[in-house]
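P.,

For your records, the input lines for the assembly:
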Amino acid sequence: MTKNEIFPKMTEAIVAGDRKAARALAEEAVRSGLDLPEVVEKGYVPGIQKVGELWEQGEYFLPELITSAEAMKAAMAVLEPELNRKGVGARMGGKIVIGTVEGDIHDIGKNLVASMLQAGGFEVFDLGADVKLEKFIETAEAVGAGMICLSALLTTTMVNQRRFIALLRDKGLRDKYRVLVGGAPASGKWAEEIGADGYAENAVAAVKLAKSLAGHS
Amino acid sequence: MTHPLLSLAGTRTVLFDGALGTELMARGLDRGAAPELWNIDRPDAVREVHAAYFAAGADIVSTNSFGGTSIRLAAHGLEARAFELNHAAARLAREAAPAGGFVAGSMGPTGIFLAPQGPATEAEFVAAYAEQARGLAAGGVDLFIIETQYDLREALAALKGAQSVSRLPVFVTLTFSAFPRGYFTIMGDPAARSAAEAEKAGAAAVGANCNLTSEQMVGCVKAIRAATSLPVVAQANAGQPVPAADGTVGYSQTLEDFIRSVPGTVAAGAGFVGGCCGTNPDTIRAMARIIRREEKS
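Structure tokens returned:
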């Protein structure tokens, strides 16, 4: 298959959430020696973008979003080792540490955001739920992340997002990281008020925001 | 024989209570702690909240067991205590109920997804909800309310679980968001189909709670009303949470905003109304006034 034939098929595999097809097409791209960064950029990324649009339009819901993110992961699992072998980083987006703040055990939304960020080209370090605020910083320092995403589902735990910013300031690390907040009670106004770098309403918006903050769209 | 509660609903609008967790937090429940633990550790506080809702005019209160499936409790390491905590939840509400007051056994989502989106199986859900229902029934609830469900499959598994251990009526409410094409759960279940399927599976009443403001709830109730012959339940949020600078959290709808849509909700076909996040005994007192006034006119 030529690029013009295979790219739309890749896009379609992601939109359809077809994991097998997404993987098979990635394998074929590797076999035929296609330019792999271009494969990611023009084959798969438009698929996940289209999924985001369908979600925003209320045409796609969580199941579709999850299966599409899984298909994206399946393709990247094939492409990533090849890209790394050629010395081209597959995760052009950078490193992100994500978790649900301490006192809060809700992780469905956070998992989805982590999954979509990964599908969107970021290297994601997911710390799970009920994560101690110090742990976010320790991990970010250890892996060299540029961004930290805090989720909170409860009005009673979202205050930990504010505490986190204060903690970063106390440690003199506030300017080192971009801090994004999300979760049902959070809002753009809340992010602004607590001095976070951004808020995203859903997983799709989170990827857009992370990309714009990372300096590429 | 028709259940007394359903008979009552045939004669007038029946009033549920409002938010429970925030009322417990106002009494000192720690952030992140399992509220169900207070059924054993702070029974007076739980009873007091139920009593406040009854005093405000609620006909039914929901037990402090929203996160009481063993699957949900496992997040707090409390899974082995599911029966005990649910039993206590039911007993406390029962003790707070005046004559003619009803107790609904609250059954909220497990917090995990069914396959293929998550690790859970339908059989696991049925078993977990059955265990919860057993505890609630033993503690003396009059009915079950499976609520805040975001996946119709989980709601139906919960219904099956409750039905497997008890013949008490089961109410089912799901949480919908408003989209240009209508009202859907996050999993994409439309309100109308959810109501129809819950009815087919044997629910005694169906409806919507959480997320929607009272204004949005009117349209959602209409959609559900058109799809089922069952009584419709509506428990809206008082808008969206708005954190204040002092760390407290308010809601975007004022009490006046919230109750303004109550007559519309009833007119749209809701037979059971109440409140969800952001509501309190004052909300229920105001709703009671509206409902009782309408009955007189």
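Two observations worth noting. The mean pLDDT of chain B is 95. The CA atoms of residues 8 and 26 of chain B lie 32 Å apart.

Regards
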